[in-house]
Design goal:
Distance between the termini: 58 Å
Radius of gyration: 19 Å
Largest sheet: none
Helix content: over 70%
Structural class: mainly alpha
Order of helices and strands: HHHHHHHHHHHHHHH
């Protein structure tokens, strides 16, 4: 009975973290999944591999959104080692893909792509899955980091039908991320026709009800304003950065401020230092993964 109570308490707390994640409350999500995992450990719950895997996966994504790259890497390395010890391929692949995100933040796009290749070589599931979605995000980010906007758009366009069939877009956060990813790739491609696609993705984000979506829409709209030389572009970029910061996404906010300062004029030191403190080795290049139209 004691073990049953420990399992229920731990699992309920972890699922509370998942719910917080679905509302874009990254800090609260991180605290709850960690509390839930600790509850399972204290209760000496056996066979909690699935629960701990969910907790670690949610925690890594929370660290990513919070811009806590060293913490994300430490968590991913620990999850990978645990997964290898238990033979949990699902968890190992997810962990490696977050290691890839950390590699890109550390200025190593080639290393990030190598991690993606390793992860996908271990994942033989035919249909487009959560792991494929994570891998797509890393690869597109690498394209944007390297200034390969056309490649980013081709990659997203090629994967889009499989992503839609996968049902992942039925979940709120992946759906919001997907709209932003598609818009970012469209903007990076540099083709006027694709600006309309980016604007369409922004409109779709308007149908979402959480702050993450409002921040993503503001980011797309601000880049479109900058590309069209709208006099309000600076104010729109400031709004996007403020919304990202309000949503606990400090690295994304700093990246927007840096990109805006570089293109429109302003202080680049403060946002560059902010990104460096978060573990970003090359703030200028990494900011292109967030605001590619301002590269």
């Amino acid at each position: 009975e004691r073990l049953a109570d420990a399992h229920l308490g731990g699992l309920t707390t972890i699922l509370g973290g998942v719910a917080a994640m679905n509302h874009g409350a990254w800090r609260r999500a991180l605290r709850l999944v960690d509390d839930g995992a600790a509850h399972l450990r204290r209760g000496a719950v056996a066979d909690d591999t699935w629960e701990r895997g969910i907790a670690h996966s949610m925690a890594m994504h929370a660290h990513l959104m919070l811009g806590e790259f060293p913490a994300m890497l430490a968590r991913a390395d620990r999850m990978r080692r645990d997964a290898e010890d238990t033979g949990d391929r699902f968890a190992a692949v997810v962990a490696i893909l977050y290691v890839a995100h950390a590699a890109l933040a550390d200025g190593d796009p080639a290393g990030a792509r190598a991690h993606v290749r390793k992860a996908l070589s271990m994942w033989t599931y035919d249909r487009f899955s959560f792991q494929h979605w994570l891998a797509l995000g890393v690869e597109v980010a690498c394209d944007l980091y390297q200034g390969r906007g056309a490649a980013a758009w081709r990659r997203v366009a090629a994967a889009w039908p499989a992503l839609r069939r996968s049902q992942l877009l039925r979940m709120r956060v992946p759906r919001i991320d997907a709209h932003l990813l598609r818009a970012s790739a469209a903007l990076a491609a540099g083709l006027p026709a694709l600006r309309r696609e980016a604007a369409h993705q922004a409109e779709l984000l308007g149908g979402e009800s959480i702050g993450l979506a409002a921040a993503a829409r503001a980011l797309i709209d601000a880049q479109l304003a900058a590309l069209s030389r709208d006099p309000a572009a600076a104010a729109r970029l400031a709004l996007a950065a403020d919304r990202l910061a309000a949503g606990e996404m400090s690295a994304l906010a700093a990246a927007v401020r840096l990109a805006a300062a570089r293109v429109l004029g302003g202080d680049t030191d403060e946002p560059s230092h902010a990104l460096a403190r978060l573990g970003v080795r090359d703030p200028k290049r990494w900011s292109a993964t967030v605001a590619p139209a301002l590269r």
